[in-house]
Backbone:
């Protein structure tokens, strides 16, 4: 409870957490508030916002309800952001732990692979991956995770390197635990907190990457995404700028919210560390 | 880019001229075209092969039709809708076995050599017939081209070939290239494919990849006083939104082929100094078509195809996707075609209830989740409108319980998926109607076309009646009888729905007020622009 109180001490964290909570509520409420297909044609095309209260944010070029698209887009953005971050953290933690714990050749090999991935710009990697495999939600998640796991891997390895010399690890060896068991049951859980601290940055980057892919037409075309909405509105940027601005604002707020909340978590745990 | 910057002297001269023009009484302003000037045009693609004799497509014509000329060009008021270019007259024999062209005298290639009937014979036999995407069908029975003298070319056909078809094919299919440049080496690899040599009003000057193409005036052009312009520069602007901004900033003077998005036209039309022109594309009608894979058992059922046709609100498509700059389609020949179109075909008015009833009748009842069956929908990526129609069609199909999953591909992957791998159930395509159904329309429904031929029947549709009708029309010489056969063809296609024609559209040009003689023929954007001029 103490930790939660510390978390809510900074205004940034409060703002971030609120934005994030709002986003989660939006994502969860989308199918209740806007049942059916959000891409269904709901009214006249290119209706400006605040004209018709049944379509408060207006309609796009085909007459689809922008507000419904915004809510359902929140689902996609969050789903992709969280799934990609989870995948990246998982791969990163496993690779980092193996490399750090095993050492020697395995360490060298795994770290050189990490280097190879790190030298390729992650967005280009995602772009190439999606255009070869074909756009769908799963592929987009995999593509983003592919470029994001290197950071967690390096952090995990560094932590593991220091932990594996601790007494309790030596103790575990003495009582005859298998090396793999030691690595994943004793070492990894203790190496995890600094790795998890990266998650907010990864989620924020994943949401942005997903939006950028959709903007370039490489998102899943059967789902509403904010990036796709911006791209769709770009053709009429001069006549109906709200079509790009509305999802753009949502995107900015989300990334900002995720980032601020993440900062709050890091700060509160830093305070705890310095106290203990 | 240095040659594109405005020189100080040029600016001074220009402003002096402007001052003078305001000082002059308006009566002094005649319609006589001014000479000189550089026309800067927006280009949205960069074709690698610029040889229009091999690649007969509008993207190539847009640039190379100014350099390489055809035997005849389309015309609003010429006989049979044609006006002479390199040929002065054309006459078909009554047996359909030969066509005689009388050629223009005193025409020179850009490298100074004279243009003769040998060039026409070479182009026809070595390029149009074996290599050209469209010529392969139209000139398939061309056996020889006799050249009794330097200015006469006689096309000899092995089988009777309708003169009407040859005539209709002239504007797009008859680009003449120089024999002396192409006779050495492999034609496909000739360097002139990237830097064409022709007889046209403009010479190819340079190409900077990703930046611009520059064409310069041909001083030895055969047209009297033509061309008026000194230069044409095609500024490569792959981003569609930048063309409108470029026009407003006076960086470009012309954006053809709807480079300015339709949604922007309402605003652009009000900008002083710019004009929106909807004419000049009458001979280049694109058709919005739903291509159907008849290998899918559900889609092989006529009732299902009829249901899909009834589910599409064509008026909505024209009004919302094309913003009114299109017409609803009734069949495979567009309404604006003066020779072949008939409205007397089965039609499919928008009727969701009827579509649902047809699907129930066909035995595809809705499951508990309201869906009857699922299919893959591949919208062609070439136009904003084809992609948008894909989104619309998905919704229209959802209303009748068909769950369509959209698959987006880039151009190359789309062509491979649809026309080679047949990995689609429905596709949205934009075929072009080129003035005669036999040029590029009948192959959309004809059976027996090898895999991999783009923009042809790759849906596995086979209808012996229709095939027989197409074969009969291709050898009917009498114009009236041939036209009548194509009217039957339209009826049969509309009745059996091998594909669904939704709309027909053309393009819009936006130009600065200073550009003169725009849109004065039905294929203006891809004609030679010899008489185009700039006022200041």
Residues:
């Amino acid at each position: 409870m103490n930790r939660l109180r510390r978390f809510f001490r900074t205004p940034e964290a409060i703002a971030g957490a609120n934005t994030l909570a709002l986003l989660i509520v939006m994502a969860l409420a989308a199918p209740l508030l806007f049942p059916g297909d959000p891409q269904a044609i709901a009214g006249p095309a290119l209706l400006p916002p605040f004209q018709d209260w049944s379509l408060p944010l207006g309609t796009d070029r085909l007459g689809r309800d922008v507000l419904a698209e915004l809510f359902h887009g929140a689902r996609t953005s969050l789903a992709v952001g969280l799934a990609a971050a989870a995948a990246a953290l998982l791969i990163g933690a496993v690779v980092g732990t193996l490399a750090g714990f095993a050492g020697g050749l395995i360490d060298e090999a795994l770290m050189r692979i990490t280097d190879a991935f790190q030298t390729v710009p992650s967005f280009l990697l995602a772009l190439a991956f999606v255009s070869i495999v074909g756009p769908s939600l799963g592929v987009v998640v995999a593509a983003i995770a592919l470029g994001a796991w290197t950071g967690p891997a390096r952090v995990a390895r560094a932590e593991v390197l220091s932990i594996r010399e601790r007494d309790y690890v030596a103790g575990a060896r003495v009582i005859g635990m298998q090396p793999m068991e030691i690595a994943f049951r004793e070492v990894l859980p203790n190496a995890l907190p600094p790795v998890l601290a990266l998650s907010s940055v990864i989620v924020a980057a994943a949401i942005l990457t997903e939006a950028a892919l959709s903007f370039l037409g490489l998102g899943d075309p059967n789902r509403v995404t904010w990036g796709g909405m911006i791209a769709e509105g770009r053709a009429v940027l001069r006549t109906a700028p709200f079509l790009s601005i509305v999802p753009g604002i949502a995107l900015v707020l989300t990334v900002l919210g995720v980032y601020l909340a993440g900062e709050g978590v890091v700060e509160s745990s830093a305070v705890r560390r310095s106290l203990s | 880019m240095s040659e594109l910057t405005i020189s100080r002297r040029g600016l001074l001269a220009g402003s002096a001229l402007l001052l003078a023009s305001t000082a002059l009484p308006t009566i002094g302003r005649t319609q006589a075209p001014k000479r000189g000037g550089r026309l800067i045009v927006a280009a949205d693609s960069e074709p690698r092969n610029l040889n229009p004799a091999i690649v007969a497509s509008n993207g190539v014509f847009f640039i190379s039709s100014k350099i390489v000329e055809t035997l005849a060009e389309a015309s609003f008021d010429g006989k049979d809708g044609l006006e002479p270019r390199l040929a002065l007259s054309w006459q078909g024999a009554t047996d359909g076995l030969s066509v005689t062209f009388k050629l223009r005298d005193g025409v020179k290639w850009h490298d100074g050599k004279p243009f003769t009937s040998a060039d026409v014979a070479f182009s026809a036999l070595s390029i149009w017939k074996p290599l050209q995407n469209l010529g392969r069908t139209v000139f398939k029975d061309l056996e020889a081209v006799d050249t009794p003298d330097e200015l006469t070319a006689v096309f000899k056909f092995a089988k009777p070939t309708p003169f009407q078809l040859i005539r209709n094919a002239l504007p797009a299919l008859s680009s003449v290239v120089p024999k002396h440049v192409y006779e050495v080496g492999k034609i496909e690899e000739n360097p002139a494919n990237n830097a064409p040599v022709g007889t046209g009003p403009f010479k190819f000057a340079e190409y900077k990849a990703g930046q611009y193409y520059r064409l310069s005036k041909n001083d030895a052009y055969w047209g009297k006083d033509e061309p008026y312009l000194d230069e044409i520069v095609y500024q490569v602007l792959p981003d569609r939104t930048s063309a409108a901004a470029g026009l407003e900033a006076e960086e470009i003077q012309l954006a053809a082929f709807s480079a300015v998005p339709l949604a922007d036209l309402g605003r652009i039309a009000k900008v002083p100094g710019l004009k929106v022109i909807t004419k000049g594309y009458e001979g280049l009608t694109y058709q919005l078509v739903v291509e159907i894979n008849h290998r899918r058992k559900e889609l092989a059922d006529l009732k299902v195809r009829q249901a899909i046709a009834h589910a599409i609100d064509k008026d909505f498509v024209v009004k919302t996707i094309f913003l009114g700059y299109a017409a609803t389609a009734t069949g495979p020949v567009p309404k604006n075609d003066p020779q072949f179109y008939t409205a007397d075909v089965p039609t499919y008015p928008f009727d969701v209830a009827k579509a649902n009833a047809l699907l129930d009748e066909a035995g595809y009842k809705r499951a508990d989740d309201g869906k009857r069956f699922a299919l893959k929908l591949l919208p062609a990526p070439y136009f904003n409108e084809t992609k948008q129609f894909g989104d619309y069609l998905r919704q229209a199909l959802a209303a009748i319980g068909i769950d369509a999953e959209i698959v987006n591909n880039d151009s190359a992957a789309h062509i491979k998926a649809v026309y080679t791998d047949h990995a689609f159930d429905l596709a949205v395509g934009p075929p072009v109607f080129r003035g005669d159904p036999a040029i590029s329309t009948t192959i959309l429904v004809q059976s027996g076309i090898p895999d991999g031929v783009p923009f042809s029947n790759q849906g596995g549709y086979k209808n012996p009646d229709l095939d027989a009708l197409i074969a009969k029309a291709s050898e009917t010489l009498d114009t009236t009888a041939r036209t009548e056969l194509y009217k039957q063809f339209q009826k049969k296609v509309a009745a059996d729905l091998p594909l669904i024609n939704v709309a027909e559209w053309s393009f819009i040009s936006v130009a600065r007020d200073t550009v003169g003689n725009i849109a004065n023929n039905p294929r203006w954007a891809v004609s030679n622009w010899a008489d185009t001029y700039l006022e200041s």
